[in-house]
Hints:
Layout: H1 3-17, H2 21-32, H3 37-44, H4 50-89, H5 108-122, E1 126-127, E2 133-134, H6 136-139, H7 150-153, E3 170-171, H8 177-185, E4 190-199, E5 210-220, H9 225-240, E6 247-254, E7 257-270, E8 273-276, E9 281-291, H10 293-298, E10 307-314, H11 315-323, H12 336-342
Parallel strand pairs: 1-4
Antiparallel strand pairs: 2-3, 4-5, 5-10, 6-7, 7-8, 7-9, 9-10
Helix pairs in contact: 1-2, 1-4, 2-4, 3-4, 5-11
Phenylalanine binds next to strand 9 and strand 10.
Amino acid sequence: MSETDKIEKEALDAISAAGDLAALDGVRVAELGKKGRISGLMKTLGGMSPEERQEMGPKLNGLRNRVQDAVETRKSELEEAELEKKLQTERIDMTLPPLAAPEGRLHPVMQVFEEIAAIFGDMGFTVAEGPDIEDDWHNFTALNFPEGHPARETHDTFFFDPQEGAAPKVLRTHTSPVQVRVMETQKPPIRILVPGRVYRNDWDATHTPMFHQVEGLVIEKNIHMGHLKGCLIDFVRDFFEVDNVEARFRPHFFPFTEPSAEMDVKYTKVGDSIEIGAGDSWMEILGSGMVHPNVLRNCGIDPDEYQGFAFGMGVDRLAMLKYGMPDLRPYFEADAGWTRHYGFRPWLSPSVSGGLS
Ligand code: PHE
């Protein structure tokens, strides 16, 4: 075997043995690179006699061309193999089930707000809101709390430091100030529902310093206590999803309503949970009454022309009752595990626009 045949065989063997593109390029450089073996042979042509060159020229050219071709062929083989490997490993398996998307939950308070708004929405109420930081006028004075009256103290109010020349602001102790804000700016007939956060300095298993209320206000002509009772009995029936609810309106005192009444519903204990509607015990669920003429006057409404009723209820407690949650404190601890357990899927919840399904 001639020297060039031997070199060719070695080069071709090395090319077909190259397992990847990097190895192949190593062979190419070793043979055909500037300092490669075959390139070295090509350079010897310059020093040959014409006869020798005539014989060796075509031989060496042939050698170089065949090795070059072999490198190209092997290169496309390896590239194809690499692509094939990629296609295999990066293939998407369409038969795999999709991963579940992380999904949040509605807090029970939000769910119950929605439920209450949907029920009153069907009765023609619209939602109104007001600020959490209130002034003394809206939280107390306009609502007929006399200056220095003990009723102001029963609210355990959080006061802000007084500003120069202005009455101290408060964290609103109830949603009733929104009654005043609406009556000051809208003409009757008024039918509003006010969900919101309220604040009182209180802390135990059933009281947190921040909690939630829903307030209702109806101001129209010829409104009387019968409307108040009918409306609230319908609400309780819809909210607790029971056909008959035994309810009573027990006389009470609020400065801003006259007469005032607390609404109690009958309930019975079944094991750890509570069933609303019948039984042998009464449970207070909300405060209500006919809007006091002084409140109407304070808001520029003539009490001889318009009357109305108002009610206010604690949403957190209603949620506890309806969904069987024993303790109020975890409501506000932002524990995702608790919310996953007691929370609601957003798209299953009723909304004001969609109604209850
Ligand atoms: N604002 C009262 C409270 O927080 C509830 C209430 C509202 C009572 C409207 C009567 C009418 O206790």
